[in-house]
Amino acid sequence: MELVETLLMELEAILNVSNDNIVVTDGDGIVLRVSKKCEEIYGGDAAFFLGKSVRDLEEQGIFTPSVTARVLKEKKEVQVMQTAAKGGKVMATGIPVFSHDKRLIRIISFSHDLTEIQRLKEDYDQLQARMDQYEVQLEGLRASKEIVLKSKNMQKIWDLVNRVAKSDATVVLLGESGVGKTMFARALHNRSGRQKEAFIEVNCGAIPPALFESEMFGYEAGAFTGASQKGKAGMIELADQGTLFLDEIGELSMDMQVKLLKVLEEKQVRRIGGHQVKKVDFRLLAATNNHLEEMVKKGRFREDLFYRLSVVPITVPPLRDRKEDIIQMAHYFLSKFNQKYETGKVFHHDALDLFHQYNWPGNVREFENVIERLVVTMDSNIIMAEQVPFYHSNQKVETKKEEMTILDSGFTTLEDALEKVEREWICRAFRQCKTTYEMAELLGISQPTVVRRLKKYKINS
Description:
Elements (H helix, E strand, L loop, with lengths): L1 H16 L3 E6 L4 E4 L2 H6 L3 H4 L4 H6 L7 H8 L3 E6 L5 E10 L5 E10 L1 H32 L5 H14 L5 E4 L6 H10 L8 E5 L5 H9 E2 L12 E2 L1 H4 L4 E5 L6 H13 L1 E3 L6 E3 L3 E6 L3 H6 L5 H7 L2 E4 L10 H16 L4 E2 L1 H9 L5 H15 L4 E2 L7 H17 L6 H19 L3 H8 L3 H10 L5
Parallel strand pairs: 6-13, 6-14, 7-10, 10-13, 15-16
Antiparallel strand pairs: 1-2, 1-5, 3-4, 4-5, 8-9, 11-12
Helix pairs in contact: 7-8, 14-16, 18-19, 19-20
């Protein structure tokens, strides 16, 4: 008798501490015992369930459906998804217990409320959606760092890049050498649906003509003398699913133009010395500093390839035509190289003014190289105008211009001439800068002085 009481106490303890709802019925489905968890999942206190048939409880919508009723019918372990009276989702498992003579004497069911799990999944989905949104925002921040710009014409180009990036349209980037065409090509790839795939860049003017075909199309083992015994995949094949960027495409020979056009039309490539044709899917970007239309007229560039490339032409202007970008770019490159070389260099305002005056025949590439040279070669932390490589040649031109402007202007007094010069400097800084603090930094004077000079010369538009 004492053993029976002990076993019953143990059973009650198990029922009360279990995180699952436990229901025990007899062989006819009459409820004998329930755990306290039953109250949370199905509603009502434990006493309500005792002595009731699971079939009746099912009809009342408490067990929907009843896993115990299914076990009574099928005489085997059953698992079902229930809808509890409170509306939550419940995973229930029913296990039959048979006597020695194979009579069904008990059914034990375990059920677990999945509402919390479902809520956690919904929270996870919301968090994932938010992370996707943040990723888009971060991508926008990355975009802003790829190409530094301030001028309106460059902002329009950047807007166009963002619009066409998501498509697979062929883009040809036009402009002088060094204007940043490669940066735009990478930006187009990074914003496309192919951003996780390869970005294959080929400089058509840097590969010797004798090697160009094997580099572009690849070759099979032993295809020619000196060929690798393993063969080699070409640039076109490597760009499969990604982006193929052909820089200086105007340097392509007529023979290679024909072969490239064939690949673009058929979307397949065959290695040199091979027989197998491989399907390729890539987005084509191209760049050139040549006038392709003129080359077409002179018979140096195929007209059909020209129209293939010119789906979306984007002309990147030279740096001398977007001088509003120069101050911002100077600080951008300075920050980049300060970080790279662990220095803390700053510009004197005269150096910034010299950058603004210079025509930059090498464009952005020359600008970046000049800044890097200054960072690594100058001992002082302040980069002065006279340390800039083209200072002396530029200074002679500017000095002569200033002398002619001042001496030939008809001023009667030195004070009038000085005011004229001061007003021109204030006007130029006003055009270049967004705030009076930036103007003060550029001019080497205090911000209150800038405000007073603006009022003095009525510069407000």
